[in-house]
Specification:
- By secondary structure, the protein is mostly beta strands.
- It has a single domain, classed as Nucleic acid-binding proteins (OB fold (Dihydrolipoamide Acetyltransferase, E2P)).
- It contains one helix and six strands; from the N terminus they run ββββαββ.
- The chain has a five-stranded mixed β-barrel.
- The protein is globular, with a radius of gyration of 17 Å.
- About 10% of the residues have low confidence.
Length: about 140
């Protein structure tokens, strides 16, 4: 099995879903990764790629992703890629790739709003050259 590491930003708040029967929770989210480069003529360019991600770790989903991960959060993910297939309402079979997350790190973690009290520190790591106030492609 091949392992993939992605660093990017959450395109939206993660969707926390419960399995029908077992009730186990999983997180589903999309991560955008932007590559900046120079074209042959010297002008800057950039390409943004989106990755559909699923985390089946129930403890990770409930205690880490649900309270702390929000749209725009910078994340580093590790996992493996799987094919996802489904049949649409029109009967056409669709194919997609998704990252099955085995490890996630939030780079600018914030405390949940309900738990923040005066005197609590907010932990933020430098954005590594990316300014969240810049144009984010989502």
């Amino acid at each position: 099995m091949q392992s993939l590491v992605i660093e990017g930003y959450l395109a939206a708040d993660p969707s926390i879903l419960s399995a029908q029967g077992s009730g186990k929770k999983r997180a589903s989210f999309r991560v955008l990764e932007t590559t900046r480069y120079r074209k042959a003529d010297g002008t800057p360019g950039e390409r943004t790629t989106g990755f559909n991600c699923v985390c089946f770790g129930e403890a990770t989903t409930e205690k880490y992703i649900a309270p702390f991960a929000r749209k725009g959060s910078r994340v580093v993910l590790q996992g493996h890629v799987e094919n996802d297939t489904w049949t649409g309402k029109d009967g056409v079979e669709h194919y997609d790739l998704r990252l099955i997350v085995s490890d996630i790190r939030l780079k600018n973690r914030r405390e949940p709003a309900a738990a923040t009290e005066p005197g609590d520190r907010q932990v933020e790591e430098p954005a590594g050259g990316y300014d969240l106030n810049d144009d984010i492609p989502f």
